[in-house]
Model the fold of this input.
Amino acid sequence: MAKSDLATARWAVALEGDPFDIDDARDLFAKHDEVQVRIIEVAPDRNPTVLLAKEFENLSSNSEVSEASRRIFDLLNGIMFVRDRVRKPVQPGAVYERREDGRWRAGTIFANLAVITRARLSAAAVVLQAPGSPPPTPAPPSPHMVWMTEATRDDTLADVLTFLRGEPDWFDLYKAFELMRDDINCKLGQNKYEQMGWPDKKTVDVFSESAQVYRHSRAKWPEGYDLITAIKSDKARALVQSLALIWLGWRYPAKT
Done:
């Protein structure tokens, strides 16, 4: 959402969750201008953190905004898992609508949103320059900003992030892995993982075959794998997190 949109946004959705995780979410989505989603702290002494989204601005009711926010929170939590798997997901809270007088419906918690936001953005935008020098080149969006934007139009990316959105179990981990693996196979050919930075097929197969132990009955367990020899959930989460980070970097290389 651009700077000019923040002061006139119609809808806001509060974030709920562990304060440290909310702080992380705000740090990830508070600083860039041209984005689909922004998370800002409005007033430090009151339930302060809200999500603004371009998608909300075409909606006409609290229920529509609430429904749309669930999908955005899924993507947000998936991105947060890729960044740090040791965290708890954040959840959508109350929906607020700006009234014609500029205040927010359902109380005055966010009454000063426009004023505070403009002040903070103005302060952050001040850059000292020599007279006559060209304006500074805008910084490219950070990777997580790109992932959020691309997920709104890329079903594969959206599905991967959604499977990783909370505290993924073996089913979710394997589905995310399966989508990434199939995407790589489609673009590079079968089992050419190392070309894009993943470990070799043997390492990847250890995860895949371990998953079958946890996802299926004993009759379908791969030869040589059982609850003792299969990798554990914590190690599986760490592996899928690393695979997702590499896959995302390959699919959406950073711009300089």
User: Anything to note?
Assistant: Confidence is low (pLDDT under 50) at residues 107-129. The longest strand covers residues 91-97. The radius of gyration is 21 Å. DSSP finds nine helices and four strands in the chain.
